Amino acid sequence: MVSPIILIAVPLGLAFLTTLLGLLSEKLPKYIPAVAMAFNLVVSIRLLPHALQAPIVAKTVGLSPPFSIHLVAGPLGMMLSVLISLVGLVIAAYAIGYMGREARSRYHALYLLLLTGATGVVLTGDLFNLFVFFEILCISSYALVGYRGDKPGIESAAKYLIQGAVGSSLALVGIGFLYGLFGTLSMADIARNITSVSPMAVFISMAFLVTGFGVEAAVFPLNAWLPDAHSSAPSSISAILSGIAIKAGIYAVARVVFTVYGADAILVFVAVVGLVTLLVGEMSAFRQKNIKRLLAYSSIGQMGLIVFALGLASARGVEGALFLVVSHAFAKALLFLSTGYMIYRTGSMEISSLHGMGRRMPVSSLCFTIAAFSLIGLPPFIGFPGKFMIISAALAKADTLFTVLIAIALFGTVVEGAYFFRIVQGLYFKAVPEDAGANLGEDVEAPLSALVPICVLAVAIVAVGVCPYVLTRYLGAAAADLLDRAAYIRHVLGV
Amino acid sequence: MIAFQTFLVLVMIVAALRAARAKDLMDAVIACALVSLMASIIFYFLHAPDVAMAEAAIGAGLTAAIFIFAINRTERRE
Amino acid sequence: MRTVVSLMLIAIVAAGIIVSLSQAPVGAEAARQEGRLKQDDVNFGRYYNNRALEETGAANVVASVVVSYRGLDTLGEVAVLFIAALGVATLLRTKQERKPKGEVEQASLIVFTGCRFLFPLILLFAAYIFAHGHLTPGGGFQGGAVTASGFVLIYLGCRGRAVGAKQLSATESLSGLVFVITGLVGLALGGSFLLNFLPRGTTYALFSAGVIPIIYIAIGLKVSSELGGIVGTLAGEGE
Amino acid sequence: MSFLENYIHYLGSFGLILIGLYVVLVKSNLVKVIIGINLIDTGVNLFLISVGYIRMGTAPIFSRATTTAEGMVDPVPQALVLTAIVIGVSVLGLALSVAIRLYGHYGTLDLRKIRDLKW
């Protein structure tokens, strides 16, 4: 069995290699992210069965935890690592064609580093190391959002950068408090000692950490950057930001709240924050006329639902949240990728310019429809089991409060359904607008290099939707990984 | 000893306030470099010579330089 | 309005910090005063201070923490700097119309000569700092920052002379690879990443502490080229 | 006096953090905001170092004069701060290049005037 550390070290090394190859050849660098992610996918799948039995604790410099940085590749971490490398591979393959003209070796190196940061976040067992990988993730996304250097890209990069930088400084203050209190940085070690200090002092450090990581996770008051950043970036970057980057943020918040602090008292608050995020996201999405902004707001709404489900804190709720993480990663990546060429062909991001696309770009439109229906939660797509699990988990609480909350959440889903149906109706049943597309020939379907990745995601959405068991059998262990602090501490520290 | 460190902290805070208030960005950058310099001396007194070196070289030197390059390419007044 | 809301936010943060500090004593000094530090072996700082010299052979405990015990952090951190260098180069890649060499306003002869005289000395000093990182204060980051200040001097004093972007890029890639490969060799030989697989040598000697000087020199070169690249691009001399 | 000895560095660091936060929240000039972020970074670094400080301690470096680990200050925060300083300068470089590009597009750095995208 190989050490999970190569999931981080090898992509990092390849990212360093990318710019070197970029000096030698124009063509080589663009294949490196795909190669690295394929490698990660194979290794993660090989490691997943081991991780399901017991978390793999990988030590560095030959010291056992907590005295050196250690990776904890538990069921949840490995599951997310598989997800990251799968989605990363698909989008990397898409980007070979899509970014072909404008991407240079720098784009590919930054993209690979973003994914490496996300992988590091989900695998590490050390709080400061989590922060460092989080910074890799955030800083490469700042650079990628502004990659094109056009007006909206630069403006949203500036906003994103300011909020992200302040957030990560606050998180660092929280880490400083924790180190000052406990003299240790290992998350398991902190979790073991957390009750030995006055709850108020602990609460403040948690507030700092959650605020800091919450900026990337896009929970309600901290998400002003998201619609701009996700809509101004190149489509392949929007896909990875919506699909993976915010999930890593959610993972960091959840890991800190559940495992490090075991803070059951604030979970109702978390559920309410999630609900507000959901409503704000869906309501704003409803008003949008720009397709990419609409998708970005819809991401906020879905993140709200995930946070709400985590706030239920029951095993079933967390399982639902994790299912939704996977389904949203697939569906939102697919939505951004399939609209990528539509926007490129029509040259406009207005929803009205997509009218009649169903006949001109049939495959892209079909995939868009599949992903949209999956997000709404229609069977037989992957979104349905996730939403169903969350609803049943909320009802299983047998608490009037949660019943009311889930009713409000369902209202949000209805709004979501309304705007996605509107778009799909436009795709298939509206006439092609006169002005848009005069410059389009007959053959406007996306090239094969884009269709293959898109279709892979679409097939995955339908396949997992029809047969959710392939995913749900891992969820029990993954949810336990997040909720069962005692087991986590026991596995890492061996006490 | 503690009196001297208190003095350094006070100078640092005053410089930070100056950086916050100054309308001329070049002023603010110089005040910012002074903050880093004071922080670097404080690091030395806190028995952190490695960090003191890094802060003096990066915080007080390089940061100010890249700020000034950037201000040269944009505008100087707030 | 905005000011009032901001001040309220700041007040909340300040109140939180004050409450936190008054509720529980934070820091090593507080722990020492309460006598908590005696019994525990859990405290990272205690553990490293007691073991570092014996385990890594580096006299500078901070160097062994940075390069060895928390080496993965450092790898992540050079990656962050790499990202910044790439990002700055990407954002500013549209070249300003570069003035031909003759029209560049030259610094005065004294400044020009002074810069040309000082630059090699600065580089030598930087190399000293990062080669002795495991023995004395200093190391890869500090040395790299000093090199970059040397570059600043060149950009100020000898206008129109750019440091080759290709060479910088190649240096940063190669030194990054050296770091990763050293770590992976440790993984292959001893089963854990960044394992110190070379002999420790005599303490206080230049060639001691196993892989620590190798990695620190790689970090030094990498940080030098990255910071140099950032400074150069921002100064408008890069590309 | 004991209060001052225990808390002066914390006071300084949190003073810097709060001043920086004020600048980030209130000022609208992008370069000024970046200066605020820089102040916050310095404050956080000072906080981390003061966490590891032991009075009457020694620097964590062995030499012919210092041969025992007794009384050495905590080396871990110093390592963390080295990391944090470098991350800080990375963000700063990126932020300033974004500012330069923004100025190229809009001819101003005033964030109140740059409102093409809105909520």
Total DSSP helices of chain A: 20
By DSSP, the count of extended strands of chain B is 0
Q: How far do the termini of chain B sit from each other?
A: 39 Å
Please give the count of helices of chain B. Answer: 3
Overall strand count of chain A: 2
The largest sheet of chain B, given as strand count, sense and whether it forms a barrel, is: none
Report the sheet with the most strands of chain A, covering strand number, pairing sense and barrel closure. Answer: 2 strands, antiparallel
Q: Rg of chain A from C-alpha positions?
A: 22 Å
**Net shape of chain B:** flat
Percent helix range of chain A: over 70%
Strand content of chain B: under 5%
SSE pattern of chain A, N- to C-terminal: HHEEHHHHHHHHHHHHHHHHHH
Folded structure, characterized:
The complex is a heterotetramer of chains A (495), B (78), C (239) and D (119). Chain A is globular. In chain A, 76% of the residues lie in helices and 2% in strands. Chain A is an all-alpha fold and 495 residues long. Chain A has a two-stranded antiparallel sheet with strand order 1-2. Chain A contains 20 helices and two strands. Chain A starts with 5 loop residues before the first helix and ends with a helix. Chain A has one domain. Chain B is mainly alpha-helical and 78 residues long. Chain B has one domain. Helix content of chain B is 85%, strand content 0%. In chain B, α2 runs antiparallel to α3. The mean pLDDT of chain B is 89. In chain C, α4 packs across α5, α5 crosses α6 and α8 packs parallel to α10. The longest helix of chain C has 26 residues. The mean pLDDT of chain C is 80. By secondary structure, chain D is mainly α. Chain D has three helices and no strands. At the A-C interface, α1, α4, α5, α6 and α8 of A face α1, α2, α4, α6 and α9 of C.
Quick take:
The complex is a heterotetramer of chains A (495), B (78), C (239) and D (119). Chain A has 495 residues and is mostly helical.
Question: What brief labels describe this structure?
Answer:
heterotetramer, A: 495 residues, mainly alpha, 20 helices, B: 3 helices, 85% helix, 0% strand
Topology:
The complex is a heterotetramer of chains A (495), B (78), C (239) and D (119).
Chain B: H1 2-21, H2 25-45, H3 49-73
Chain C: H1 2-23, H2 28-34, H3 36-39, H4 44-56, H5 61-69, H6 71-91, H7 109-131, H8 140-157, H9 165-190, H10 212-234
Helix pairs in contact in C: 4-5, 5-6, 6-9, 6-10, 7-8, 8-10, 9-10
Chain D: H1 2-26, H2 30-51, H3 75-106
Helix pairs in contact in D: 1-2, 2-3
